[in-house]
Structures are given as C-alpha cells and as structure tokens.
Amino acid sequence: MDKNNFKSWMAVLTAIVTVFGATAACLASGAVSSAGDADFAGLDASIRGQKAEIINYINAYEHYRAFTTYIRYNELGNLMYDPTEDVNSETNIRNGALQREAWGLASGISAVFFSPRYINADGQYDLERELQEALAQDAQNEDIDANPYFEDSDHFRKRSAYLTADMILLAIAFWFFTLAQTTEKNIKYLWAGLGILVGLAGVVGIIIGRYVI
Length: 213
What we know:
The protein is an all-alpha fold. It has one domain. α1 runs antiparallel to α2 and α1 runs parallel beside α5. The radius of gyration is 38 Å and the shape is rod-shaped. The model has no long low-confidence stretch (mean pLDDT 89).
C-alpha cells in the first residue's frame, strides 16, 4: 500500500475511534447522571418511608395506650357489681352507677380512640397487624420503596464503569493508529492491525454497555 494512502487510512481510523471514544464518554456520563437521579429518588422514597413508619408507630402506640385505658375502665366496671349483696342496697345502687359510668367511659374510648377490630380473640391488642396495615396503606398512597431506585443506581454505575473501561480500550486503539502513522517500517502494519482489533472490541463494548449492561 502506498505510504500516503496508508497514512490517510490511519487518519480516518484514528478519527473513527476518536468519535467512538467520545460516544463512550457521553454514554458513561449519562449513566452517571442517571445513577445520581436514581439515588436522589431512592433517598426521597426512603425519607418518606421513614416518616410514614415513625407516624405509624406513634399512632399505633397511642391506640394501644387507649386500649389499655379501655381495659382498665372495663375491668373497673366489672368489679363494681357484687352479686352477694342485696341489689336494692345503697352500696349496690351506688356501685351500679359507678359501674355504668366506667363502662360508658370504656365504650367511648373504644369507639373513638382505637379500632376494636385489632383486638384478638384472646383479648390482646394486635399492634403488629395495625402497623402492617398502616404501612400497606402508605405504600398505596405514595412511593416509599427505595430499593428499586438504589438497584437502578447500582445498575447505572456498573454501566458507567464498563463504558469508562471501554474508553480506555478505544484510547489504546487510538494509540496504535497513531503509532502506525509515525512508523516507517513494516511493523506499522502490525500496529494498524492491532489498532483495528482493539477498536472493534471497543465498538462492541459500546454496544454491550448501551444495550446489554
């Protein structure tokens, strides 16, 4: 091959790998930007999730405290009646009034301050069930799951790292073509061949990094 033609071809190939190198750099930069966006979205969802969890715990334990107050008044009402005494006695009449008052308070508390549906068959308050239902409701109302965003962030960073490594490969191809241009001996064909092989590997790397990883 004529020396001038060879150098022209090397100049063209050098320009091509330069363009592909810039493409790899652009894709790597875009992947880093996408990773940053995913991190921000994940952090935002994580904050919303933590906020919802704190509010749910506060509400649930307030309800549980109301339940214990309900139990106290309900048991107090039960203790107010003594079946061994005369129902018409002054003590039983007075205790009956106190009993109705205690039960009324217990009924009011159960109607307003907590949901009786969380009381199990054994009479215990199912705090965990209330927390799980509140979390499920929050998940329906807003995005509080940060894991998918952080997984996307890891994916984009992996892509960026791969494309950055591919840029190095294309830089090596550029170096081989430059070496072939400046070499007068026949070994320049070896440099050119290596440049083509490495450059092709770099192009394949861009395709993999863009569509596979």
